[in-house]
Every structure is written in C-alpha cells, then in structure tokens.
Amino acid sequence: MRVYVEGYGCVLNTADTEIIKNSLKEHGFELVNSLDEADIVIINTCVVRLETENRMIYRINELKNLGKDVVVAGCLPKALKNKVNGFFHIYPREAHRAGEILRDYIEKNKRTIYAEELIKHFIKN
Fold it and tell me: Which residue ranges does UniProt annotate as crossing the membrane (predicted)?
C-alpha cells in the first residue's frame, strides 16, 4: 500500500508526523510524495484555533472528494470526533503504532484497541 502523509500544526505535531511515517515504513507501507500515487492519505493535524479547525476540515473533505481513503490523525479527531465521523482515526498517543493500527484495519477490518483506551472507557462508565 502506498501512503501519502500531510502534517500540519505545532512542533509536537510535526514530530508526530515523522513518527507516523517511520511506523508506516516499519510495517511495510510505501511512502509516496504525491497524492496521485497514494492509495491512502493520512492527514495529521491539531486544532488550536477555529480558523485552523475550519481549514483542516475543509482539507480533509477535499482529500475525500479526490476518492482517496483518508485517515485523520492527531488531536483533531479526538477533539472534534463529530466533524470527522466516517474517517479512520489515529490519535496522538498512537503515532508510534500508526503502521500497526493501519495494517490491522486493512487486513482484519478492525481497529486495534490498546489498554490505555480500555482503561479510559471503563473509568468514564
């Protein structure tokens, strides 16, 4: 699978984008430099300001309209889940597992859930 990755945001988010890319390579994904070459597009973004939020939602939908499978990574899917429903998500603390999570989703059509997520779920409920 060929993956194109776009990263937006702060210095931490830029670092997470590189971590995501490394994880993808470790799990056999081919990183490409062009949207045209990609099977999957990952957009890693954060939301701090409303202007940025609106621009990123627009960009996510723009990528979707190109007919690409879009994965939304970073704090945006966690903070604004209702605005990115229908997209596969990779959260900030999962950046180092991005390749594994995406591989599981593609091969098994399921999302890997880690202990940290389960603990948070049970604490809430």
Answer: none
